[in-house]
Specification:
The structure is a homotetramer. Chain A is an alpha/beta fold. Chain A has a single domain, classed as Aldolase class I (TIM Barrel), CATH 3.20.20.70. The first copy, chain A, has an eight-stranded parallel beta sheet with strand order 2-1-8-7-6-5-4-3. In chain A, β3, α3 and β4 form a beta-alpha-beta unit. The mean pLDDT of chain A is 95. Chains in contact: A-B, A-D, B-C, C-D. The interface between A and B is medium-sized, with 32 and 32 residues.
């Protein structure tokens, strides 16, 4: 087992639906192919961007299998398998492993706020049922619980919990993580507007939906960091900052799908109650994308 | 259709599980029977207390049917049918209606924050598929979205959305509701520690899990309000305040099940990752219940 | 010493300034006279409404003396003497006592967040230098520190700290206070929109600037509570709710002065950087006051 | 007028008091001398660290004059002159200019939350009365108002408001600032734990009390950034991170004075109600300082 099979830019595809609100697998595969060929270092289906919580089991399994077929081992894959119950989390984690996922991502979903012991037991149970690595994901805004660095440290003692994704939106948390967990901890940033700060703080990678729209800029930021060239990284970051702000403010599925439509790739439809961006919002996104394009070409 | 079939104390049963984490229907029926015979004015299965989001379709349907069988029309029933997708919300709402529910409760669950238009469309779609009344439920902490009084006003224009349950925990919100929606709006309080304030503000009822443990005090509070006797209401409220604080602080499913165990009724087990209260917490609850009992007897 | 010399409606005057930004003592006395003759049960100069923190020592002393002269013992007086340093708090408390104040109000101002021990020492030092009672005031929004019920309990052990004013805006805090401190604690509500809830919870009085504008309604609310008539209290409360919301949302000094202008009393000017309400805001206030007047007459 | 006379590390001295709670000017001068000789690029008396709001006029003036005498032009000086009223802010700004300050720092203190127009008028009035540059300071936690990038843009249109210090603790705000105000805006970071992120985002300088304790590390961080060496900057930042966390968590005046005592320089006493750190806290600080020393030596 490669305990930390990811680095760099880990791209999150959307889940496109057709007019009957069924998953559109051919379009999904086309979107995934673009992510791979434009250089993303990993592919992560069934994240928040992929509206995983809105999908039923069959839809999740179809997306998982389509990802494996399309990626075909060219880059590692990270499949979201989180669920409110431990039983269903185990179920989806085992499915992902059988399907060929490189690793799984788990956020402790919390309708009723979980205690630290409940969270540890949850991860431990799932981890004991699979052999591939687990990335523990902290995102208080969507998961409903904020895992402290001390709790994450306990989770990392479970043998195949080997990575942390931090999306609390607070860069100080990344500093705490590195101080608490040691320089070698593999922590990944999940907050788009913090991309520069997180890399500066030592993040090994960036989990992001933005490669659907601006893969060159995303990867160039990582390359500049790898080259220890802060000035260049800063300049590249500010070129993409307006887009990163926009997609977070408007919601990732809505804004990425609108952007894919604008780029001519096709974003696909939504599952109710989620609806597309408004016309004004789409026009705003178009302006941001056009400004980036003209700047990058120059 | 009785547009507002509820008033007074609407009791929320837990969902008990056996050692294999299967729903324990006989114990559930016993718990429901107790709620009815101790005087609650309505029964609301599949709420947060009933860990609805953790249940699969079969479990939800079994709980719904068991409630109808046990209540047998003695008091009105309010069945929780919320789901992230509109499709599944319709599915469960139709099931509840067929099973004989008096009304359904719907909170706009929000993994991705919904816009006002998305929320209105969601309720409108569900409402058009059933004939029984809908209680719109606002609880930012668990639903992830805070519905403004202005949005609730829009929802109440849908013919069978006739009631509002407010659990934001801010009594000023209830004042706004009544000012914005008019004196005749049927608003119900879902925040236990605000029971006295909400009744003082004009709430028609109190949605609460506490009748599992202290039905006499809950109903006596409502009776004092009905008698326009504020001094008595205040005195009765403070008798139960410590318990109301405790069950909210520790989580309703955990604390109600522990209390039912202490009372000899039996609370039943949990579905992972949720676990019981710790020994210390159970002892604290025992003290609170004993203090209430001695005070009430005197 | 009457340890708890207040009950009912404690009215907060503004501090009017002339065109040169000097305190306008004749207008201040006229405003105070109106508060007394319209029935307020106490007068509290140098509160937040009176922009105490913006005044220099001479201005504070002039306001204190003018209050004593005008009130002339007809109702008890409560003078604000808070300051960032203990030394200056002692200075102003001693001045208030010499001038004839019935009691002083002290909030632990906190530029640097104070520890509980620092707060206790602060109150203890001031209390030891005067003989009149002290009302401890909790208002995290303006004071910068939130005093827990446990800390307030410690403060109440100091012999002449005998009253608590709670303005955290959370009615549950009042429930905690009464549970923690006992039924006999003299707690006063400082949050206008919580007036009904706070009285329902057992508050002995209401510290408010609204008697500058609607004294009859404020006092009628208290009278209904005293008569144990919740229905009437509710009805009277909702008549004044829009005004209470407005003055809190727009800032007490600005909105009370604008209201006094509208009522023909004269509110007086401001000390920079504070400025009057905008024209639109004044028109909104005029509408609210007119609606109240027509309703009350009928 | 040099519009932006600062860059790099701007050091904030404490204000030491003697046993009678009078300002200890000789100790203050000694502390300032150390800040200059250890390499800080600017000196900023009467900041939050210097407990400016707790000082009377004479104390503020004595500190201002002592700073000018001791610094003697070796580095630029930035004097805090903020006050709740415009009148007193003008008074202190004029004093600072006459005394020889290079620039003044102004935060819009807000007991009553100021409108944007009130804030602009406040800065405009002060700016018109002096000729030296003004640094506008945003710190919602201590100032009580959060100035948006749009408001800061308005302030920067006032000719001698030429610099912004941002202490909201949110690195995204710095990204917004730079996007909103342009690449050339002179923004300074006032949040110690964000030092690395802020420099990565393009901050021109770091306003900090930490050079009282670890000047070499603070300046080395800035030097690494200047050399475009992110790896080195990261390594140096993590060496000082525990100290930066500690001094923020415990309060700057308390922790810096305790550190100066531990280093043998002498921190001086406090003005009530502020008190020193507890023995346990001092021991914790000692451990952090010792760990840094051993690491730096190696």
């Amino acid at each position: 087992m490669n305990k930390v099979p990811f680095k760099g830019v880990i791209a999150y595809p959307v889940t496109p639906f057709d007019d009957n609100e069924n998953v559109d697998i051919p379009l999904f595969k086309k979107q995934v192919e673009r992510l791979v060929t434009t250089g993303s270092h990993g592919i992560a289906p069934l994240g928040s961007t992929g509206v995983m919580p809105y999908l039923n089991d069959e839809e999740k399994e179809a997306i998982t299998e389509a990802t494996m077929q399309q990626v075909a081992g060219r880059v590692p894959t990270l499949v979201g398998v989180s669920n409110l119950t431990t039983e269903k989390t185990v179920y989806h984690a085992k499915f992902a492993e059988r399907a060929g996922a490189t690793a799984v991502m788990i956020i402790p979903m919390s309708y009723w706020k979980l205690t630290d012991d409940e969270i540890v037991k949850h991860y431990d149970t799932v981890a004991s049922k699979i052999s591939i690595p687990i990335m523990a994901y902290n995102n208080p805004a969507t998961g409903g619980v904020d895992m402290s660095p001390a709790l994450l440290k306990r989770l990392l003692e479970i043998p195949n919990v080997t990575m942390v994704k931090e999306s609390s939106g607070d860069v100080q948390r990344m500093h705490y993580l590195r101080k608490e967990l040691g320089e070698d901890v593999a922590f990944f940033n999940g907050s788009n507007p913090l991309a520069l700060s997180a890399f500066s703080a030592g993040a090994k990678g960036w989990c992001t939906a933005s490669p659907n729209l601006i893969p060159e800029l995303n990867i160039a930021l990582y390359d500049a960091i790898q080259a220890n060239d802060l000035e260049k990284a800063q300049s590249i970051f500010y070129k993409q900052f307006d887009l990163l702000k926009f997609i977070v403010a408007k919601g990732l599925p809505r804004s990425i799908k609108a952007g894919l439509d604008l780029l001519g790739v096709g974003g696909g439809g939504f599952k109710s109650p989620l609806k597309p961006l408004s016309g004004n919002e789409i026009a705003e996104l178009d302006n941001i994308l056009s400004a980036i394009e003209s700047e990058v070409v120059v």
